[in-house]
Each structure stands twice: as structure tokens, then as C-alpha cells.
Design goal:
Radius of gyration: 22 Å
Helix content: 25-40%
Number of helices: 10
Largest sheet: 8 strands, mixed
Strand content: 25-35%
Structural class: alpha/beta
Shape: globular
Oligomer: single chain
CATH architecture of the largest domain: Alpha-Beta Barrel
Distance between the termini: 11 Å
Order of helices and strands: EEEHHEHEHEHEHHEHEHEEEEHEEEEEE
Number of domains: 2
């Protein structure tokens, strides 16, 4: 890029204006989920391909430098079967054991952490309490946590975190419940906003505190953008609940209703509660189809979401499964989805979709500790977000979802550099 003086661009000149003196949220990290499905698929790869995948995701020089990870507490849909860590009716959790995870998931988490340079911010989310703790006596189809088991369930998070930490996996944070409004054919459990607020305030928050885990980042909601404001305001307007909550987590699946992605709701929460973090906790393209692995819209969905989520105040962004097999699984209820990377386990091959590269345009260049800075585009065809890294490097990600080629300028403090955005492209500009 060659910067020349341009004190005032004309309206006819498409421009991205960047002001590094205006600072917003600090980036915590970008990454993906290490699920049972990812781990079981990983185990089917040759050692060579395992090493390649780890470097591709976690090495910041050779790969895209992921620094954040999420994993499931007990089973989720992306497990090959349902399971729990305690035996039935053991409310004192005497039988608690994470032995199930030692076969696939824990080895993957440890290898991913090593590949990331020994440090990976890992947070954990439950899809359902054990069936006997719920009013429907089932892991699936929603149901509610029974009042008499609230303390047992709060203790269960502590047991899980301490078990993982004892095995050498530091836990950075946890969410209360994955998708608390979803009644699914897989592991799910419903909490209304008041129920989640009261569980945090009276059980989970105090229990984490008493167990010496008060510094773990507690994430509420962990569901779609459509109801994020109502959930956040219900919980955060209560001082006794809010004091335990680090941030509000969200997913992108509000589109199932026919809605577009509702970034305005995320911004509303950020403006109303500027001292609470926003973290994107899950997103993937549903309805896996092997013929669409090279579909360009896969990556564009990620780019569109990431740019707009960051511009709305989001401080951390987590993809769903880092790896799935050639069927978009394993998934014990057939909810097969896309991942940025798929393994053809029959032929020991890795297939990188463009979603992997779109995510990399952010994660490789915008590093933890970077601050989002003032940035505005003069054309809606050019979507962009800008960050200033701790090392002084300025990063601007520019995405063009249109069929048009567009010449534009990057303008910083009266200096402008001209470049071109190609149709359906994403580019990362780094200014030193």
C-alpha cells in the first residue's frame, strides 16, 4: 500500500476511513469448539494429518492462530451418543467422573493447547443436566432443572472445572446453559430469563465463588441474537445476579425464523451494559451437503457475521466444530452441519472450505489484546472492521459480498492508499 496525502476525499471516491485514536472493546480471542465430534473425527486421521490440522488452526505463523476454544460439559448433539458424568440419583455427585472424555476429547484439547503455544482460553458449556435432575426425566426435548437439584447442578460445574484443571487443562470460563430457550431433539434444557437470573444469583454464582472459581468468566444466555436484549436486561438489571456475570454469549441461528442476523440487538446490549463483555459462542452452516463444500457463501456468512459482531461491540468470537467428518458429523440425532474443515476419513484427507480462510482473515491478524478502532466505509458494498494490535500494527478487514469490482481508498489521518476489492472477496490490510 502506498499512502499519499488526501486531506478530503470526494463522495465519488469509495473510502474506508480509519481513526486509530478512537478506541472501543479489547479483543479476547477468536477460535472454535473442540467437541466430541471434532475429537472423534480427529482420532481417525493419520498422525501426519492430525499435525497438519493442529498447525492449520493453532499455529499463528503457519496457520490462523486460534486462541479461544469451547467444549461441551457432558453430551451434546455433536457427540456420537448421549452420556452423563454421574450415575442416576447421585445428588452428592460421589460418582462424578470425566473418564468418558479421556478417550477423544481431552487428548484433542491438550494437543490444541500445545499447538497454540501452551495457552488456549477454554470455556465450557452444558447442553443438559443429567436426566434425573429434570422435570421431564430426559436429556432431550428441553425440560427444566428441578428446584431440588439446583445446588447439585451448581456443584456439577465446579466438579467438571476442577477435574479438567487437575488434568492440566486450565478453564477460562463457562456458560450457564447452551441455548436455554431451545427445546430440541438433542440435549437441551429450558431456562426463562428469570430462571437463569435466579439460578446465577442464588446457586451458580455463589457456588463458583465459594469453590475458589470466582475468577472464571461466567457467560449468560448463549443463544440467538433475537432475544439477547430481553435476556441481558433481565439478568443484568439485577445487581445480585449481574455481579457474577462476565458477559453475554450469543449464536447466529435467529435466521431459522426467516429473520436476518440481528446485529442491532447486540449493539443495544453493548450500549446498555458497556461494562459487560459480548462473546459470540457458536455459529455454523446447518444442513450439511457434501456437494456444497466449495460453496462461496459458507465463508461469506462468517465474514458478514464477524465484521458486524465486532462493530457491535463483541470481544470474542467462537466458531462451532473445528472439524467434522465427510457426513457433517458424527451427530447422534442426525443434525449434520458444515465445519470450516472436514475430514474424508475413508481416504484420510482434509478438506478446507473457504470458511476456514475467511475466519483466518480475522484470527491470524487481529490478536488478543487488540483494540477495535474507529472505522467507517463510504459504500455499503465494502464491509469492514478495524483493530489496532498491541504491537502497533493496524489491521483492516474488508469484505465485498457483491458481484462488483470496486476501487477504494484506505484513509488514515489525511493520508490515503488506493487498492481494489474484487467481487466476493475478503482482504486483510495490515499497516505498520
Amino acid at each position: 500500500l502506498n499512502f499519499v496525502e488526501n486531506k478530503q476525499p470526494f463522495e465519488t471516491e469509495p473510502t474506508i476511513f480509519v481513526d486509530p485514536t478512537i478506541k472501543y472493546q479489547t479483543l479476547v480471542g477468536i477460535g472454535g469448539a473442540l467437541t466430541d465430534a471434532s475429537a472423534e473425527t480427529f482420532a481417525k486421521l493419520s498422525k501426519k494429518n492430525q499435525q497438519e490440522l493442529l498447525a492449520a488452526y493453532y499455529n499463528k505463523d503457519k496457520g490462523i492462530g486460534y486462541t479461544l476454544a469451547r467444549t461441551n460439559i457432558a453430551s451434546c448433539d455433536f457427540s456420537s451418543a448421549s452420556y452423563a458424568y454421574v450415575q442416576d440419583n447421585d445428588k452428592d455427585l460421589k460418582t462424578f467422573s470425566v473418564a468418558h472424555d479421556e478417550q477423544y476429547k481431552i487428548p484433542l484439547i491438550k494437543q490444541a493447547t500445545a499447538a497454540a503455544g501452551g495457552k488456549l482460553a477454554l470455556y465450557v458449556s452444558p447442553w443438559s443436566p443429567p436426566a434425573w435432575m429434570k422435570d421431564n426425566n430426559s436429556l432431550i426435548k428441553g425440560g427444566h432443572l428441578l428446584p431440588q437439584y439446583r445446588q447439585s447442578w451448581a456443584n456439577h460445574y465446579v466438579k467438571f472445572i476442577k477435574a479438567y484443571e487437575a488434568m492440566g487443562m486450565p478453564i477460562w470460563g463457562l456458560s450457564v446453559q447452551n441455548e436455554p430457550m431451545a427445546k430440541q431433539i438433542w440435549e437441551s434444557c429450558v431456562y426463562t430469563a428469570e430462571e437463569e437470573r435466579d439460578f446465577i444469583k442464588n446457586f451458580l454464582g455463589p457456588t463458583l465463588q465459594k469453590s475458589g472459581l470466582g475468577s472464571k468468566k461466567l457467560i449468560a444466555w448463549d443463544h440467538n441474537r433475537d432475544q439477547i436484549f430481553q435476556r441481558a436486561s433481565t439478568i443484568l438489571n439485577d445487581k445480585e445476579a449481574a455481579k457474577y456475570v462476565w458477559g453475554i454469549g450469543f449464536h447466529w441461528y435467529e435466521t431459522w425464523t426467516g429473520s436476518g442476523m440481528q446485529f442491532g440487538n447486540v449493539r443495544q446490549v453493548h450500549e446498555a451494559y458497556p461494562n459487560k463483555a459480548l462473546i459470540f459462542t457458536e455459529g455454523c452452516k446447518e444442513k450439511y451437503d457434501v456437494n456444497k463444500l466449495d460453496d462461496w457463501t459458507l465463508g461469506e456468512r462468517y465474514g458478514y457475521s464477524m465484521i458486524n459482531d465486532f462493530n457491535a461491540g463483541t470481544a470474542a468470537w467462537t466458531d462451532w466444530n473445528i472439524l467434522l467428518d465427510e457426513n457433517g458429523g458424527p451427530n447422534h440425532v442426525g443434525n449434520f452441519c458444515f465445519a470450516p474443515v472436514h475430514a474424508d476419513t475413508k481416504n484420510d484427507k482434509l478438506i478446507y472450505t473457504n470458511a476456514y480462510y475467511y475466519m483466518g482473515h480475522f484470527s491470524k491478524f487481529i490478536r488478543p489484546g487488540a483494540k477495535r478502532i474507529g472505522s467507517a466505509s463510504s459504500r455499503d458494498l465494502l464491509q469492514s472492521t478495524s483493530f489496532l494490535n498491541a504491537d502497533g500494527k493496524l489491521v483492516v478487514v474488508v469484505m465485498n459480498q457483491s458481484d462488483e469490482k470496486l476501487k477504494y481508498s484506505l484513509w488514515i489521518k489525511g493520508m490515503a492508499a488506493t487498492t481494489t476489492s474484487l467481487p466476493h472477496s475478503i482482504a486483510t490490510l495490515v499497516v505498520e
